Amino acid sequence: MKESKDSSGPGPGIGSNRFLLRLARGPIVSSGAVGTLIQDRGLTPGETSEIWNLRRPQEVAAIYRSFYQAGAELIGTNTFGANRIKLKRFGLADQAYQLNRRGAEIARQALPPSCFIFGSAGPTGELLAPLGPLTDEEVYQAFREQSLALAEGGVDVICFRTMSDLREILLAIRAAKENTDLPVIATLSFSLGQRGYRTMMGVAPATAISELRQAGAEVVGANCGQGMEEMVGLMREMRELDSGYLAAQPNAGRPELVEGRTVYAQSPEDFAARVPELLYLGIQIIGGCCGAGPEHIRRLARAVEAAG
Questions:
Q1: Which CATH number fits domain 33-307: 3.40.50.2300, 3.40.50.720, 3.40.47.10, 3.20.20.330?
Q2: CB-based burial of residue 165 (10 Å sphere; 0-12 exposed, 13-18 middle, 19+ buried)?
Q3: How far is it, in rounded angstroms, from Cα 99 to Cα 272?
Q4: What average pLDDT does the segment 53-58 reach?
Q5: Does the model's pTM come out above 0.90?
Q6: Whose CA, among 2, 14, 34, 135, lies 20 to 30 Å from 253?
């Protein structure tokens, strides 16, 4: 594998953390879309996937194992929407702690000790004041609760992902850092427009990287978005801005609406075709987001192995 001249080795503060020590040794393949697989397995309309941590834990465990068997070394938990603010719309706010802890416990029990688990934590789905109803304290407390539950469940790292509001993700990072001793992966969702790459709230990569690093995120990057093609260009820009650990977890192509359902039609072969470019840039965590199933990750893992 060719390495970018900007790719960094072990950074300060790694200490004896098992995940960061592994990250320092080379790229890690992460899992794909847990939520997509739960939908495929029969998630009821109006039901949140996180409730399966309590009602159908064996199904959740099988999904975790499918990504591990495909070659992922870093598996995300079924807790993306499990903050109490988002769960409130499903009448599950009071079960937030339990849903997060169980999502992590299921992964810990289903996977071998050598496998790393990231606690997946997405946005609240609400806007912060003055644009929306949420206060900083409400957001902080929601992510504090989620971080503590994921840590208790046994995750190795917390990943705040698919964020578009920089203020929200900074509150999330602070909540994790002040209440756990776990490293943090922080990824936002960008799209390419006339002004270049921006999040839905207008955050540029340079601003994001600077603020996320200052907040203490050990790994920064992007997930979701418009697919692998745009992700490569975004990672190229991010690498020029930052020499630390970067993560890329794109969708399996652009979302398309087919018969009232959002689908991601990119084949596993096409999804993995651009992986050598990410490796050349020195991207340390490469995985998938919406639409990326075990076969996408299998092809991705083979591309990483072939480049090694």
A1: 3.20.20.330
A2: buried
A3: 33
A4: 98
A5: yes
A6: 2
